[in-house]
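Entry 12.
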Amino acid sequence: MKITSPKLNTSYLTMNEAALLRCQAALDFKDKGDYENAREVMHPIWKRVGERPETNGLHPPVAAEVLLCTGILTGWIGSRNELKEAQEAAKNLITESITFYESVADLKKIAAARAELAYCYWRDGELNEARIVLKEALQKLTAEGNTRAKALLKLTTVEWSASRFNVALDILNQNAGLFEKITNHTTKGNYHNELAIVLRQLATAERRDEYFQQALSEYQKADHHFKLAENTIFRANVKNNIGFLLFKLSRFKEAHEYVDQARRLAVSVKDRVGVAQFDDTRAQVFIAQGQLKEAQSMAHSAVSALAKSGQQCLLADALITHGIALSRLG
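Predicted 3D structure (tokens):
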């Protein structure tokens, strides 16, 4: 997705001021899921994923900001575009940014950068490493605000990825007050989406039917905030999550409708990883319906795409779905 936007006018700014403005604009675009404009706005100092940005002449705190910003973008763009080496490149950029922040003793920025580093570990399936780094970062991020909120959401993702659903729920419930105060719609949407994911998992594990309805309500809140944030990619994920929840409730026709909506949104923004995830969801619905040939074909497609993406957690889920379909086909 590319959102039409005016070109940044940096002619009246110093080199350092211009670099900071570009970083802020790029991260704003990232929050809308507009990775193409995020990359383009950084183009004078960073051309593409896999390259180091130009930091010569920048003050250390500004160089750190540029390295962190390009590291974050590398992780997201690389994940979306199935670039296998992207997470390692992102780790290197973020680690270098931490070195610059250490040189000026900016403890808050060091912690924020380490939280972003942890997310790269999570994408690589290194859950223990991600958890350790996030907990260390949160010990430093004591001030309530968007930076702490985003780190908490990352930790929640790590915990439910490790099937520690009650731990994840505790994190979200204990910090509900913080997320009420947050004004960033992407962060608020992520909070409701994470809460819905955890409730959905617990509803199945603990046979708590009331959690299914709570999860559905949280997904609708997430969709509302992502719509306000103009984030098509995250809206697609929510539509898929609603479809998955309806599938668990054996409402298969509605489930297919929501997964269709999710897939169309993902295709519209060329999100191949998202399309693969949604194909995995559809395969699971087909399995539940006993349509095993359709399930096997869809699951095979999801596995093939995710194997190229470097996202080990998502690939593991898709492999399980494919294995179930093959097993039931004999």
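Annotation: The chain has 16 helices and no strands. The CA atoms of residues 34 and 238 lie 17 Å apart.
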